[in-house]
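FORM 7B: Structural annotation worksheet

SECTION A. Query
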Amino acid sequence: MHKTISPILSFLIGTCLLVSGCLAAENTLDSHRVTQAKMDEWKKSLSNWGRWGSEDEKGTLNFITPDIRVRAASLVREGISVSLEREIVPVMADPDAEDPKGRIAVLQRMVSGPPERTTGSTDRISIVAHGYTLTHFDAFGHHFHDGKMYNGFEASEHVSMTEGLSKGSIAAFEEGVFTRGVIVDIPRLRGVPWLEPGTPVFIEDIQAWEAQTGIQIGKGDAVFFRTGRWQREDELGAWDIASIAAGLDASVIPWLHERQIALVGTESAMSVVPFPDTTTLDNPDDYLPAHNFALVTLGMPLIDNADLDDLAETAASLERYSFLFTVAPIRVTTGTGATVNPIATF
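SECTION B. Predicted structure
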């Protein structure tokens, strides 16, 4: 709990400079407080279960209509494309090596090549779909609330340790994503290179960014929240991102629902860690409140561990923060997620 005090107070000081008449620190923290009771209430009032039919597996990607795609295509003017994927550097292994606990993010084994084969080479690559290293696309079968994934599908019926997923798999997004992307660069807004680990991002941050850039985030958008994780890591070294990370506060959840956002991408796992009200969230499904709520209740696909530094620099240099966003996860019929290379095109 003490690890979050300094970043939160830092946010409040910055907010006071941006917004006139800000509340005292204690009152501002109270105004964003989200209890388990509030989360449980939102699971009913903000649920998208059944919104697109009882068998729907696309969730908020349904907001991306043909008209939305046409509008997004019109954003391509300079023809500049930027990758939002972290470079994958695999661990090389002996062809017969094993990784029984699945802890190596990417394991590459050469199958054929010189000196035995001189006409080419082949390999086998094993990829862990989740975690805090690779840029990946979360499917709905990745998280549950009370044993149910998005749209009320029972995990016990549709998730098998021997057969994978029969509902909520990454294959449900076979059409890919083609829509308007928007970057929300909180460090640039605050005039700092990065947010310190544990710093929450509130609705007020997003509203201030919209006011500064003139962008109104809305239906069908793919929104990318930059916290500066990778820049900080490059300059100061890696830290335990699973234990402390800047990210969205749970109080942002109603805003995500109201704006009808199609997809969210972040530089870690979306949620601020540790969440300030961890002691009141006794449901382990909510250990990443914004992240898990988006996947399960909103039916909102997520991209974790995106690299947004180049995107931020390109957007700033062009002085526009919206772009054509495209990504197409591989069609693994039973998979919980997939590494992806998202592309922003200006």
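SECTION C. Observations
Residues 34-86+134-345 form a domain with the Glucose Oxidase; domain 1 fold (CATH 3.50.30). Residues 1-6, 8-27 have pLDDT under 50 and may be disordered.

SECTION D. Sign-off
Analyst initials: ____
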